[in-house]
Design brief:
Helix content: 40-55%
Number of helices: 7
Number of strands: 5
Mean pLDDT: 95
Structural class: alpha/beta
Radius of gyration: 14 Å
Oligomer: single chain
Order of helices and strands: HEEHHEHEHEHH
Strand order of the largest sheet: 2-1-3-4-5
Strand content: 15-25%
Largest sheet: 5 strands, mixed
Length: 151
């Protein structure tokens, strides 16, 4: 993916999903999978709380919404938060070529492992993404710890 790509515009789609999740009473994490031209293939948000499904992370929702693709190497997974190990595994399993994280301050996830595995990782350090999740964590620490598998 070229350095001239407007990652902030791609992140705006994931942020819209994160806000949608928050409005539904869920954890405000959003994601979208894009093709190499920047066209949305699928988008979604964390639905663990809403669906009672511990596997429904934002990246999983976006991946599922994209449906079957012939290949993923040229796709871009954009997420408001650094992917957890579960979602990082999804990226590696299907060889998604680029991950754009809105932030990694609230949660570092598997960014280093993805980089070491040859995935192009762009961490935007978005103040809006940082604030959105930090506010949620402060208000709902038990739900957040459940989401990331901490006790």
């Amino acid at each position: 993916m070229g350095s001239g790509r407007d990652y902030a515009a791609l992140l705006a789609v994931a942020l819209e999903e994160a806000r949608r999740g928050l409005a539904e009473g869920g954890i405000p994490i959003g994601a979208a999978l894009f093709d190499a031209r920047g066209r949305v293939l699928g988008r979604g948000h964390n639905r663990r709380v809403q669906d009672g499904d511990p596997s429904m992370h934002a990246e999983t929702a976006a991946f599922r919404a994209a449906g079957r693709q012939r290949r993923y190497r040229d796709t871009i997974m954009v997420t408001t938060l650094a992917p957890c190990w579960y979602c990082s595994g999804l990226v590696r399993q299907f060889r998604i070529g680029t991950v754009v994280a809105g932030e990694s301050v609230n949660f570092r996830g598997g960014l280093d492992w993805l980089r070491e595995s040859g995935v192009a990782v762009i961490d935007l350090g978005s103040p809006e993404c940082i604030r959105l999740l930090a506010d949620y964590i402060a208000a709902h620490p038990a739900v957040w710890h459940e989401d990331i598998g901490e006790e």
